[in-house]
Amino acid sequence: MYFLGSDFFHIENAFEIHPCCMDESCKSAACSFTGCYFILWMDVPQFVHLHSEGSSGLYACSMGNGTSRLYSALAKTLNSSAASQHPEYLVSPDPEQLEPIDPKELLEECRAVLHTRPPRFQRDFVDLRTDCPSSHPPIRVMQWNILAQALGEGKDNFVQCPVEALKWEERKCLILEEILAYQPDILCLQEVDHYFDTFQPLLSRLGYQGTFFPKPWSPCLDVEHNNGPDGCALFFLQNRFKLVNSANIRLTAMTLKTNQVAIAQTLECKESSRQFCIAVTHLKARTGWERFRSAQGCDLLQNLQNITQGAKIPLIVCGDFNAEPTEEVYKHFASSSLNLNSAYKLLSADGQSEPPYTTWKIRTSGECRHTLDYIWYSKHALSVRSALDLLTEEQIGPNRLPSFNYPSDHLSLVCDFSFNEEPDGLL
C-alpha cells in the first residue's frame, strides 16, 4: 500500500524502497525535497525523487530517462480533474464509499455523455450449441485490448482517426458501454492504463473483483501527461465465482525476463462448485519479434501447465497475442498438451479457420488488418455455447479503427462457455 495524500495506490507484488542519497538539484519552489530513493519494482532497479507538496502528500519524479522510468502512476492521485465534469457514477469515487451501481443507470449515464456520437454498432451472438442445454448458466467471457489512452493519443498515429474521437472522457464511456452491453461474467483486458481511476472503482461497484498487473517498462510512460503504465486486467463477478488462487506472471523469453505479463486465476463456480483457470496476456508486438513471442508463449504454457496441475483444471486463455495464426506461438497453443482450441474458429464454415481480422487500423506506415486476438479453451472440458460476431467491413468504415463509433483498434471477443457434463480423459 502506498499513500498519496488522502488517497492510496495499491500495487500488487509490493516493491522495496530504500533511501540512498540527497540531491539538492531536484529542489523547486513548488515542493520540498524529502529524499532520493532506490526502488525495486518487479525486479527492476529504479531511482526516484520523493517530494511533498504541503498537505497533498508524497509525489515521485523519476531521475533520468529510460533507465529510471518509475511506475509513474505514483505521481497521480486517484481523482481526475476532468472527471468532475461528468455525472456522479463517472466521477472517481471515494474508496470508502463504494456503493453498488445499477448497470442500467451507468449505461444511461454513458449514453448521455455520448449523445453527440453515432450509436453503437449492432453485433449478434452466433449460437454454437451442438448438444443439450447445460444445467447451469453459461460463463460469459470477454477478451479485449481496449487501447491504452496514452498510446492512442501519443504513440499509435491513427492517421484517419479524428483527435476528438480519442478524448478519454468520452472514449471511456464507449468502452464501458461495450462492457455493459454484453455483461460478461469475466473480463480480460489489455492496454489498461486507467485501472485505478476508472475501471477498478466502477467495475467493483458493479460486483466485479479485479486484478491489475502492469508492464514493468510500459511505453505509456514515455508519453507526456501519461496516466501510468498499461498492463493486463482481469475482472470476475463475485456473486458467481470464488477466487481460489491467483498468479501474476512476468513472461520470460530464452531465460530473460521480458516486458510482457500475464494474470492467471483459478476460480470456483458458486452454482456448480466446479473449478477452472482463467488467464489473460498480451505478448510482444511488431514484425521481427516472432521468435520472441514464441518463447513467451512457451513460458506461459509452462506456467499454465503447472497451475492447472497438468491440465486437470479446465482452462480459458484470453489475449492479444500480436501473432497471426501462421506464427509459431499460435501453433504452440494449438498443439499444446493442455488440449486447447481457439473459440473463434467455430464461427467459420469449416470450424477450422480464424476470423479474417480482429484489428483493423490505418497508421502512417499504412493500413493494417490482422487476426491477433484469441480466446483459447480446454476443448474436452468446456463447450462454446455462443460467440459474438465481428463487425463487418461496412460497419468499421473506410477510416477503420478506432473511430467515433468504436473506442479501440481491436475488436472485443465474447464467448459463452459451459462445462461438459462428463469431461473425458485429459482436459
Verbal overview:
Its EC number is 3.1.3.108. Belongs to the CCR4/nocturin family. This is Nocturnin. By secondary structure, the chain is an alpha+beta fold. The protein is built from seven helices and 21 strands. The strands form five sheets. Strands 7-20-21-8-9-11-10 form a seven-stranded mixed β-sheet, with helices on one face. Strands 12-13-14-15-19-16 form a six-stranded mixed β-sheet, with helices on one face. Strands 3-4-5-6 form a four-stranded antiparallel β-sheet, with no helix packed on it. The N terminus is likely disordered.
Number of DSSP strand runs = 21
Low-confidence stretches: 1-87
Helix content: 10-25%
Tell me the distance between the termini.
39 Å
Q: What's the shape?
A: globular
Estimated share of beta-strand residues: 25-35%
Largest sheet: 7 strands, mixed
The SSE order reads: EEEEEEHEEHHEHEEEEEHEHEEEEEHE
Strand order of the largest sheet: 7-20-21-8-9-11-10
Rg over CA atoms, rounded to whole Å, is 22 Å
Tell me, rounded to a whole number, the average pLDDT: 82
Please work out how many helical segments DSSP would assign.
7
Keywords: Biological rhythms, Cytoplasm, Hydrolase, Magnesium, Metal-binding
Cofactor: Mg(2+)
Family: Belongs to the CCR4/nocturin family.
Catalytic activity: NADPH + H2O = phosphate + NADH; NADP(+) + H2O = phosphate + NAD(+)
